[in-house]
Specification:
Largest sheet: 6 strands, parallel
CATH superfamily of the largest domain: Dehydroquinate synthase-like - alpha domain
Helix content: 40-55%
Bound molecules: fe (ii) ion
Strand order of the largest sheet: 1-9-6-4-2-3
CATH topology of the largest domain: Dehydroquinate synthase-like, alpha domain
Number of helices: 14
Shape: globular
Order of helices and strands: EHEHHEHEHEEEEEHHHHHHHHH
Radius of gyration: 20 Å
Distance between the termini: 37 Å
Number of domains: 2
Length: 387
Amino acid sequence: MVWDSVHPFECPTRVFFGWGAAGQVGERLKELGVSKALIVSDPGIEKAGHVATVASAIEDAGIGVASYTGVQPNPTVGNVEAGYAVYVTQQCDGIVGLGGGSAMDAAKGVGVVAANGGNIADYTGREQIPFDLPPLVCLPTTCGTGSEVTFNAVITDETRHIKLPYVSRKLAPRVALVDPNLVVGAPAGVISSTAADALSHAIECYINTASDPLIDALTIGAIRMIGQNLAAAVNERDRAAIAQLSLASTMAGIAFNMNANAVVHAASTPVTARHDVPHGVANAIFLPAGLRFCIPAAPDRIVEIGRAIGAPIGDLTGEAAADVAVTALEQLFSSVGLPPTLSAFGVDVSKMDLDELAADAMKSRSVPLNPRPITPEDLVALYRKVM
Ligand SMILES: [Fe+2]
């Protein structure tokens, strides 16, 4: 069936990965013709010393540097405006996004306003950005969102209390520098939750109906790398394992940027919009139940996921084998301290309107791509399971 339609594939971002990749930031900015770069980051990353390190690597290449380090966990319109103010007063002509998805999304937002004027809220939606951004180089400090290679950003409008989504090819960073040095010092909880998000991207892309062999190569590779390295990365702080996670999250990002997710992100998003549950943790909670829901429609793909993460499938086949795969995933998450239900976050099912959550989830573009058709009733059942 995959050959009956035409599939696009592109990753316009030049990706450089490996220990020390961040040290190339000056060289890459120089290639892009940047004379003064604005680093967009957050207070935690600044405190960890990464802003100073990256700034001196930029200066070593003879390029000027300024910084805005006020990005909040869900970057706001105000964060973009504050970053843009520094960009203008410091006469910058290039941007460096340094941090997790929030800092990189804020950096994209600053670039949109720098190139197009007006307010970032003016450009929300799909392909609504008229002019190309200034050169943007992204350096992820977590192993999760894949924002360093995606066409997406989400900015929160803090006055209207809504999230503004952006999807545009113009948001693709020109360069991604994926350096495990930026991740090794992150708290264990950040590594486990962001890697669970990346694993969720890879798994949902792999099982959804829009997958194709090119995307499969990236997703099954990322699933293997995360599945086999997550425990060592989190529990032993194993450097080689953390390096595997950092590249795997970029691979999953390239894949889901060309595809979409499935039932897990569709179901988790309305919950994280209403409750203070980290995105990656929510996906880890929904992933086993979401996969079990998909077993009747995609048992073989779920078995392949199980084999990639090292589940003890042995000679089992079909749905029984797929169930072993999902159990192995549950055990993996439990081994790194990820909770199995939302109750740990004080989410009380009796106080929630599950029909409203399900109706919101049904709006996700990932819903029509789920291997097993989803009804609002299915989602309500899923919510009851994880709460
Ligand atoms: Fe995600």
